[in-house]
Amino acid sequence: MSQTPVARLQDVTKRIGGRTIIDRVSLEVYPGEVFGFLGPNGSGKTTTIRMMVGLMAMTSGDISIGGHSVKREYPKAASQVGAIVENPEMYKYLTGYQNLVHFARMNPSITRQRIDEVVKLVGLSGRIHDKVRKYSLGMRQRLGVAQAIMHRPKLLILDEPTNGLDPAGIRELRDYLRQLAQEEGTSVFVSSHLLSEMELMCDRVAILQKGQLIDIRSIRGETGTAAKEAGEALFEVDHPDAALGILQGQGSARIVDGLLQLTADRDLIAETNKRLVEAGIRVYGIRAKTKSLEDQFLEVTGGETVG
Ligand SMILES: Nc1ncnc2c1ncn2[C@@H]1O[C@H](COP(=O)(O)OP(=O)(O)OP(=O)(O)O)[C@@H](O)[C@H]1O
């Protein structure tokens, strides 16, 4: 994508007590996309998010939000983020609306009209004047999201928002996150340890394993099936070394057992083939070893059922 990213993580690393918890994680989140951060428990999702919102310092690397470095321009970066990292603090004896008015006081730019708008967006209009103590978990969470987006952040970060929600609650969450992305152009960064939920909610998913990012994938459609997209493509060519030279800059290209191997989706396979042929390389065969997101996630989790 050629758009300017809303969030950019560059080689983000966190070491605690000599242990590397997050290891050179790099990724970009684009305007209006719902980006999933998928990994088994303990893989480092929360730690990464804590660094993104400035709750924890990085050991090295950098994160920018809306073009502002979290390290060097924290107030500017923070103003572009809305997040629910731990359970949102809400006053249970107040109504949902009173809670929002209370939080809006801290930011004079938030008007009553804006409050009404976010209430509608998260689907709480009918119950916003009920006391929060009467709310279900899903409703409390929606109120938390309403609070987090009142100041029109470019990026909304949600850490494991589906925890404890029933399937209907998850579907609702998916619907209003999508709406948020579409109507307000807000990008959403959402973590989960459940692949099935990520497939329902996200445009792209990054898989984190033991603090390392092992893949970033697009998800096509909302049918619950992961696109069999990027994978290893093997090119059988007459001069592998020359072919590798031609593909300089195509990050993943390497030679394996005399074959030119690279990570590519269908378009990139076609494009690579064209480049090679045009450069005078003879291509005898192309094999694509695509792995579904599910295959890959099962490898990461060792086939264990997580949940
Ligand atoms: N302050 C800390 N000191 C030492 N180790 C930590 C600290 N914070 C996190 N860790 C370790 O870092 C690893 C990643 O933790 P993290 O909570 O980020 O994972 P997670 O993917 O969010 O998992 P979960 O879904 O279980 O919260 C874990 O092994 C955890 O024990």
TrEMBL record:
Q: What Gene Ontology molecular-function terms does this entry list?
A: ATP binding; ATP hydrolysis activity
The answer to keyword rRNA-binding applying to this record is no
Domain of life, per the record? Bacteria
Q: Which UniProt keywords apply?
A: ATP-binding, Nucleotide-binding, Transport
Q: Which Gene3D superfamilies match?
A: P-loop containing nucleotide triphosphate hydrolases
Residues forming the ABC transporter domain are 7-235
The UniProt family comment states: Belongs to the ABC transporter superfamily.
> Which protein, by its recorded name, is this?
ABC transporter ATP-binding protein
Q: In which organism is this protein found?
A: Cohnella zeiphila
Q: Could you read off the lineage of the organism from its UniProt record? A: Bacteria, Bacillati, Bacillota, Bacilli, Bacillales
